[in-house]
Amino acid sequence: MGLVESFSGVRGVFGEDVDLLLCRKYATALTELLGPGRIVVGRDTRPSGQDILQALLPCLHEPIVVGVASTPAIQEAVRATGAIGGIIITASHNEPEYNGLKLLRADGALLAKEDMERVIARTRTVSEKTLRNKTTYYDALAAYEKHVRSIIGDVQFTNAAVLIDPNGGAACDYEKLLASYGVEVSAVNNTPGVFTRRIEPNAQSLAPLQSRITTQDFAAGFDCDADRVELALPDRLVSGNEVLALALTERLPTLPKGQTVVVNDATSQLVHAVAHEHGARVVESGVGEINVVDTMLCTGSVLGGEGSSSGAIVFPSRCRDGLLSVLLVLRYLSRTQQTLAQAVSRLPQFVSARKNVTLADVTSAREKLAAWGKERGADVRVSDAIKIVFADRFAWMRASQTETGVVRVICDAPTKKEAEALLSEVCGIIGAE
């Protein structure tokens, strides 16, 4: 994979692509960008996380250490403490040997793209500095629980049963938090720092979890920093688009009419249809959490997300939140007296098919795809991605910003068969069969 530096953060194999010196340079560059002030520092459960945390502290004016916590909890700690920014030590959904940094601004969101570009450029010339600092400590979990209750309320789910799989990650704290809502919680792989499956929750890594669902309503598998969640039934995974759609279905009726929902341009038409059913308009942003967040800020939206990366963004949160998404789904199921399978079956029917490919010439592939779309009379939308939009389906392609050499292709249509057929056709056009 090599070192990846983008607006999503910095990550790579620790000891090869990422080392303590690089981390200190990033901390110093962030301090120069933000100026003197308090900066929250937290981490997920990777074995290299504590060494990185200790290495960063001398580079910060007033570090606030929150220790192990989820990305949503660390972002909330930035807001709750009035800090000027934050650093999350995580490689998110990459494997345990990876680590990296997510850099935050004062509202807890990732740095804006232009600010992250400045920080990246500055690390090339900056000399690490040792500052005389005052280190304090903060209970991020308590602040996060208060934040979650401000959105979900003091409800009790008396007939809910959920199986969770934190896989040794930051979601290990969530068993007690879910239980405080009356949920009957069963947990597997719940020892911090002990990873028993691949970090990214997907159909392959969660197959053993599905086989353990017995009396539970569903299972929830998290990635290492717990912003992503995948919901599982015994016979299928609930897609990220479906999770986001259910979260919107529960949240939108509680808000005034005429809301704006922001999604990235790879999100399924399913989410658009659900938003429109509730009288909301949909605005698309580019892929990347900060793109969605900043578009939400510009449009006055309080709801958004990326269907390809499970988890809703519910302001004042500034990131997708796996736990909040689970609780919104539970609240919807409780209110409507449905099972998760029933609720999903009643959603508008659109299906996304996706494939990661490698291409020798991405520019040429984009040109071929654009020409094909124009020949078919489609709406061709070009940004950092290319999206070919038909009446009831679309094809989308974009080079990954977090995985070197990977190009993502997503096709969305009314049925699985149609989505997969469109995906096969697109891959043939771009030379990625």
Strand and helix map with partners:
Layout: E1 4-6, E2 9-13, H1 20-34, E3 38-43, H2 49-56, E4 62-68, H3 71-81, E5 85-89, E6 98-104, H4 113-123, E7 136-137, H5 140-152, E8 161-165, H6 174-179, E9 184-187, H7 207-210, E10 218-222, E11 229-233, E12 236-238, H8 240-251, E13 260-264, H9 269-277, E14 281-285, H10 289-299, E15 303-306, E16 309-314, H11 322-336, H12 340-345, E17 351-357, H13 362-375, E18 379-382, E19 386-389, E20 394-399, E21 407-413, H14 416-430
Parallel strand pairs: 3-4, 3-5, 4-7, 8-9, 8-10, 13-14, 13-15
Antiparallel strand pairs: 1-2, 2-6, 5-6, 10-11, 11-12, 15-16, 17-21, 18-19, 19-20, 20-21
Helix pairs in contact: 1-2, 1-4, 3-5, 8-9, 8-11
Tags for this model:
433 residues, alpha/beta, Alpha-D-Glucose-1,6-Bisphosphate, Chain A, domain 3, 4 domains, seven-stranded mixed sheet, five-stranded mixed sheet, 14 helices, 21 strands
Written overview of the protein:
The protein has 433 residues and is an alpha/beta fold. It has four domains: 4-143, Alpha-D-Glucose-1,6-Bisphosphate, Chain A, domain 3 (3-Layer(aba) Sandwich); 159-238, Alpha-D-Glucose-1,6-Bisphosphate, Chain A, domain 3 (3-Layer(aba) Sandwich); 240-345, Alpha-D-Glucose-1,6-Bisphosphate, subunit A, domain 3 (Alpha-D-Glucose-1,6-Bisphosphate, Chain A, domain 3, 3-Layer(aba) Sandwich); 351-430, Alpha-D-phosphohexomutase, C-terminal domain (TATA-Binding Protein, 2-Layer Sandwich), CATH 3.30.310.50. Helix content is 35%, strand content 24%. Helix 3 packs across helix 5 (140-152) and helix 8 (240-251) packs parallel to helix 9 (269-277). It starts with a strand and ends with a helix.
